[in-house]
Every structure is written in C-alpha cells, then in structure tokens.
Amino acid sequence: MRQLNLLSNGYTPYLEGDRIQRETFQKVRDREVDDTLIIVEFEPTYTAGRRTKPEDILNTDLPVIEVDRGGSVTWHGPGQLVIYPIVRLGEPVDRIKYIRAVEAAVVEAIRDTWNLPVEIIEGRAGVWMRNPDRKICALGLKVAQNTTMHGLALNLYPNFDNAFTGIIPCGLNDAGVTSLQQEGITTTLQEAADALVKKLNEHLRPLLWATVGDQLDASAQIQQTPSQTGKEA
Q1: For residue 3, which of 43, 40, 42 has the smallest C-alpha distance?
Q2: Among 109, 129, 106, which Cα is nearest to 117's?
Q3: Which of 17, 25, 55, 163 is found 20 to 30 A from 74 (Cα to Cα)?
Q4: Where do the annotations place substrate binding (predicted)?
C-alpha cells in the first residue's frame, strides 16, 4: 500500500484532511491509484459519528463536525496519530473481517513496539487498557462501494487538560481515555506511524482487491495470450 504522509505539514485542518480522504477514496474505488494509508495529525477538532447521542456532548457550545463514520463523538488534535486506510476490499466484502483486521493490526503494533498489554473488549470498538478500562486507540470505520474510509486514532501524548473535554468520549460514560504517554511510553508520531503501517499492511493485504500494478500486469498477460496461443497452434 502506498502512504500519503501529511505529518510533515504540521497540524492539518480537519476539513482539509477530510477533503483529501474523499478524493483518495474516489481514486481507490475507481482503481486509479493503489490502496492508500493517509497519515495525519489534526488541528483540535470534535467530530460526531453516526451513533452520537445529544447527551454525549456535554458542552453544547463546542463546534462539532458531523461525519459519516461509525461511533459517537470524539476529539482529534495534537499528540494523536490518525491513519485512514483507504482500500478496495476483495469480494465478497466482509465488513466484520475488515474491522477485526484493523483491530488486530493496532493491537500487535502496540504490543510488539511498546510491550503494552492492550486488548479488544467484546462489544466495544477500539483498543483498550484494562482495570480500569481506558481507551488508547479509537476506531471509526466505514465501507462504501467495496472501499473503506475513516480509520483509527492512536493517542500518543495529547494534553488531556484540553483534549476530550466537554464530551463523553465515544459515548462511554463508564470508561476513560488514555495515551501512550500516560502509560509510560515516550515516542514520536513517525515512530508510531511506522509501527502501525507495518501491521496494517500485514493484516489488510489478504483482504484487498488486486493493486493497480497487479491489474496492469494481469492485463498485459491477457493481451499476450492470443498471440502466444496462435503460435502454439
């Protein structure tokens, strides 16, 4: 998978990142470009997914952007790494298998890189630390026209004096939010991106439609077949 790494741009406005995501989605869907991982750190932003309830937004003065991903309201901003896998899934499309693959990639990346005992909790999206339950990586995924959108948000070192305030993160009032820094891990956005990209490639590749390069190779082979058959005949 190719990478579209926006980290060198600094904090990206959320709507600009969303525009890039949707343009990339159309190109991947139409097989104009290979499957793509968009890597970004956003300006401080609150977004509300399709399952957001009015009571999840405690401060009604907050500017909240409604988005078409799954999940409830959350925060994006400095110190949080966001990766959008924009990939075309092979048929038959299995949305649950795709979600499980993304979860597994995040869990393995965190365990293998920083040796944190993160887990998946049945019935709750994301990746968690336990006892008490606290989410370290949020997932908000969407599949449309066999192609994926949105993705994961891993908390590295957000300032919790500001981040996630005024909302019930992900609509879960019985759980908390944590970060790698709060769990004793010091890292960089790029180091975290490298770890996640490696595992996403491993776990998503078996689910993908052929890449653009594979299609071109297959097309060339098909074009050669008639002439080769004629010579053999």
Answers
A1: 40
A2: 129
A3: 25
A4: 69-76, 138-140, 151-153
Q: What is the pLDDT of residues 177-191, one digit of tens each?
A: 999 999 999 999 999
The reply to whether 72 sits in an annotated binding site is yes
The Cα–Cα gap between 27 and 72 comes to 28
Instruction: Map out the domains of the chain as residue ranges.
Output: 2-232
Cis bond leading into 92, ω under 30°? yes
pLDDT band with cut points at 50, 70 and 90 for residue 50: confident
Question: Which residues on neighbouring strands pair with residue 208, listed in sequence order?
Answer: 89
What is the arithmetic mean of pLDDT over 106-130?
A: 95
| pTM given for the model | 0.88
Number of Cβ atoms within 10 Å of the Cβ of 189: 20
Q: Which residues contact 213 (CB under 8 A, 6 or more apart)?
A: 34
CATH code of the domain made up of 2-232: 3.30.930.10
Contact 14/21 with Cβ under 8 angstroms? no
User: For residues 50 and 205, which has the higher predicted lDDT (pLDDT)?
Assistant: 205
Is 10 annotated as belonging to a binding site?
Answer: no
Q: What is the mean pLDDT of residues 192-217?
A: 83
- Chain position carrying tokens 């180091």: 191
Catalytic annotation, residues: 170
What does the block give as tokens for 3? 């990478």
The Cα angle at residue 36 between residues 31 and 37, in degrees rounded to 5:
165
